[in-house]
Design a protein that fits this description.
Radius of gyration: 20 Å
Shape: elongated
Number of strands: 8
Largest sheet: 4 strands, mixed
Number of helices: 1
């Protein structure tokens, strides 16, 4: 096969879609009420099936996961070891699709957060 040039090799007959598996998993969009700016100083914690996921800040978190049921846990660490806004749900991942979820931090310090299917609009 000649690199970078089309040829008659058997490798050239492969369709690009056969080379890359379709993405699937869970996408969690995290957010808080804009007047509660103290949350901006913290980064939410997201766990998939008990395993911590990399989270950079508030917003959309993409988590690759195989098809099936998965447990999602979200909380916000405030000022050290205090955890607020704890929320849990079960997400069903379908092959080739990202399941869209939404997390909302609570308006009160002791209230639970909410995580579930993303609402349109």
């Amino acid at each position: 096969m000649r690199l970078g040039l089309p040829g008659n090799d058997e490798d050239d007959d492969l369709d690009g879609a056969d080379l890359v598996a379709a993405p699937e998993g869970v996408a969690v969009t995290t957010g808080y009420h804009p007047l509660l700016f103290g949350y901006a100083l913290c980064t939410p914690t997201v766990l998939l099936d008990g395993r911590p996921q990399p989270v950079v800040g508030w917003g959309r978190v993409i988590i690759p996961a195989p098809p099936g049921e998965h447990h999602i846990h979200v909380e916000v660490p405030l000022f050290g070891s205090r955890r607020v806004g704890v929320a849990d749900c079960t997400a069903v991942v379908t092959e080739g699709v990202f399941t869209e979820l939404e997390y909302r931090a609570p308006r009160g310090g002791n209230a639970p957060g909410w995580v579930g299917p993303r609402r349109s609009g």
